[in-house]
Design brief:
- The protein has 141 residues and is an alpha+beta fold.
- The protein has three helices and seven strands.
- The protein has helices at 15-23, 110-123, 125-140; strands at residues 2-11, 35-40, 49-54, 60-68, 72-79, 82-93, 96-106.
- The mean pLDDT is 94.
Length: 141
């Protein structure tokens, strides 16, 4: 198993606004510049699947496998010989919001997919999280 995680605490950010942006999968490209499109045509619930198209790469299908409303969700992408889990968590800490994103890769071909996909995703965690929070703050005001 390969695991990489990134956390950051943001003052004066609404958990509800971040959750709204996280669960509006079709709008992910508005805060993740590496995405061409995302398409969720079902409700945001466990078992729903969506298509995600990174710029310069083929589209993948991702399934929602765990959701705790306004606290966290986990998605799963299946690759040949591997699975990638993305866990997105939020914790209110007084007047601040701690966001954590964790990628976990499993499977016999995980090393291949880490080189092709996962490391690029992990390298952008900080920028994507900051952009998400900036958008949440703009929409709040």
């Amino acid at each position: 198993m390969w695991v990489r995680s990134y956390s950051k605490v943001y003052p004066n950010v609404s958990a509800q606004q971040v959750w709204k942006l996280w669960t509006d999968i079709n709008q992910w490209p508005s805060w993740n510049a590496d995405l061409e499109y995302c398409k969720l045509e079902q409700p945001f619930k466990v078992g729903s699947a969506f298509k995600l198209k990174p710029k310069g790469a083929p589209a993948v299908q991702i399934s929602l496998v765990e959701i705790d409303h306004e606290k966290m969700f986990t998605d799963c992408t299946k690759f040949l010989g591997a699975k990638m889990y993305g866990k997105h968590e939020m914790h209110v800490e007084g007047n601040a919001l701690k966001l954590t994103t964790t990628i976990t890769f499993t499977g016999i071909l995980k090393r291949l997919w880490i080189k092709l996909v996962a490391q690029k995703v992990v390298d952008k965690f900080a920028l994507q999280m900051d952009t998400l929070v900036q958008l949440a703050l703009v929409q709040k005001g």
